[in-house]
Structure formats: C-alpha cells, structure tokens
Amino acid sequence: MRSCILWITVIAVVLLLAGCGATDKTTAPSGDLNPFAAAKVGTDSTLEVVTWNVEQFPKNGRATVDFLVEAIEALDADIVALQEITSVLDFRQVDTALPGYDGFRAGSAGYDINLAYLYKNSGPLTVDSIYEILIDDDALPRHPLVMQGSFDGKPFVTINNHYKCCGDNHLELNNDWDEETRRYNASLDLQAYIQQHFAGQRVIMVGDFNDELTDPAENNVFENFLDDPQEYRFADLAIAEGPSSGWSYPSWPSHLDHILVTGPLFTALERPDSEVRVIRLFDYLVSGWAEYDKNLSDHLPVFIRIKP
After folding, report:
1. Which among 4, 73, 126, 206 has the fewest CB atoms less than 10 Å away?
2. φ/ψ (deg, to 5) at 198
3. Burial of 114 by CB count in 10 Å (0-12 exposed, 13-18 middle, 19+ buried)?
4. What share of the chain is helix, strand, coil (3-state, %, to 5)?
5. Strand locations in the chain, DSSP E?
6. Residue 243: is the preceding peptide bond cis (ω within 30°)?
7. Among 138, 246, 265, CA closest to 206
8. How far is CA 75 from the centre of its chain?
9. CA angle 60-64-68, nearest 5°?
C-alpha cells in the first residue's frame, strides 16, 4: 500500500513540474510550434519580396532572433529585405537557423543599423550579386543595397533602402539637410541610377522610406516617381490610400514602407495571382501588438507577390 501511495505521489510531482515549464513566448495552436504558420505568403510559382524594418535588431535579444526565424520560416518568401540590422552576430544566428536561406548584411552604413537580405538558396530564384550603391550620397544615410539575379530564368533587380527619418512634413529645397529634402533628393538620385544602370529592366525597389505617398505634391518626396506613371508605380499606393488598419507603422499610425516597380513589371502586377499587402503578424500572437512590439519591431512587413 505504501508503495502504491509513493508512486502516486511521484506521478503527481512530475505532472506539476511539467506544468511549470511555460514561458512568455507565444506558441501556436496544438500541433504547430510556429505561431506565424498561418501567415504564409510564398508559393512555388511566384516571386515574393518582403520589406521589413526590424527596429534595431535584435530588439529583445535572443527572443527577437527566435521570433524572426519563425516569421521568415512561416512566410516562406523568396527574398526578405531587412532594415536596421544592428548586430551582425545575431543576424548570422538567424541565417544559420534558416538552412533554406542565405544571408547578406551590409557593413558600411552609418549609425550601425545596416541593410540586409535573406533569400532562398534553392528553387527558381538565382542570386548573382549583392552590392551597395550611391555610397558618397549625403541624401542616403544608408547606402542602397542592390540584389541582381533571376527568377525562373527572368532577370530582375531588387534595391533595398532606408531613407532619412523625421522632419516637419515640409520640403525646404534650399536646405540640403532638411529631412524631407534629403528624402526628396534620395528619390531623384535613385531614379537617375535606375535610368542609367537598369533602364528597361525589371526593378523592385523596397524599403523603409520614412515618408508617406499621399502627401500633397508640393511636399511629396516621391513626386518624381508619381509624376512618371509610364515608368514607375508604387505597388502599395492603394494601401497608403486605404484605412490605417492596413498600414505598416501602426504606432503612428502611418504607412512608411513601400514597394516601387518599374514598367516591365506592370503586367505582372496586374495578374490575378499577384498581391501586395501589409502582413499583420501581431494577429498571430496571444498578446497581439504588445508582444509583437516587444519582441520584433514597431514596423510590420510588406510583401509583393508577382510572376515576373
């Protein structure tokens, strides 16, 4: 009898200890350990490019590394263009934990918040080169990061950006250090670079542009692109013109993260299998935005899906 009571006691203690193993990290419903599993955007036949400012990565140390790995695994996009990668060591941890991806982080930008790419290393995507441009351009505090490659044999170019932040919403064109003027000049310089080096090519320019597409023309830092609709189109313009619930920077709220495509991709953008959307990853976490903001970023990722 004493032996039976002892065994019952041992089992009860084991069960109690097992119940104490919970952590602060959110888990998905039973049967799937990735909380973002339902957020998948990738398909086998289309090219997906995600742009995501991950706010001074890693914002919350190892927890941020783990959350980012889970998010990228779940999204299953071909290319993830990242901004604000502060720690090269933690970025390498993410790269190592994603065997289906290769990573590249720029190393020459100021403020130690660099641009980076994570991209699939098998399948229809082929990456030929990654390099920085406009290195001596004062309008661009982070040097744009170019990726050249092909998808299913079709060449394309991706340009990852992080424009200067802040300002007062007014262009002061006589002041080269005015924040809006620097963003305006950055747009002009990138347009000139595309025309000189990638004219007639499939170009997808993404990033945290730190300004809104819907500003009036006299203060719109993207007016040079908006005034040339035969060559350039902001694929996310409908998002910017839509409700704030769909914007990429909820805490303001505003829509600052954009995707610009050139003319050769207009037809692909109009196909029924294309999509452009802000990915509300916080919807998949038990504590919602508070948990997302603590462990990942104050920006949400934006993605484009096309068949080039």
Report:
1. 4
2. -130, 30
3. buried
4. 35, 25, 40
5. 47-57, 79-85, 101-105, 114-120, 125-132, 145-151, 154-162, 203-208, 232-234, 257-262, 275-278, 302-306
6. no
7. 265
8. 11
9. 160
d(C-alpha 83, C-alpha 140), whole Å: 13
The two tokens of residue 134 are: 């406009």
Condensed to tens digits (0 to 9), the pLDDT of residues 261-276 reads: 999 999 999 999 999 9
Q: Is the pLDDT of residue 132 over 90?
A: yes
Whether 83 contacts 52, CB under 8 Å: yes
Determine the Cα–Cα distance for residues 49 and 47; give it in Å rounded to an integer: 7
pLDDT value for 113? 87
List, in order of start, the domains of the chain with CATH numbers. Answer: 47-306 (3.60.10.10)
pLDDT at 13 over 70: no
Which strands make up the sheet holding 145-151, listed edge to edge?
Answer: 125-132, 145-151, 154-162, 203-208, 257-262, 232-234
Distance, in Å, from the CA atom of 104 to the CA atom of 92, rounded to the nearest integer, reads: 9
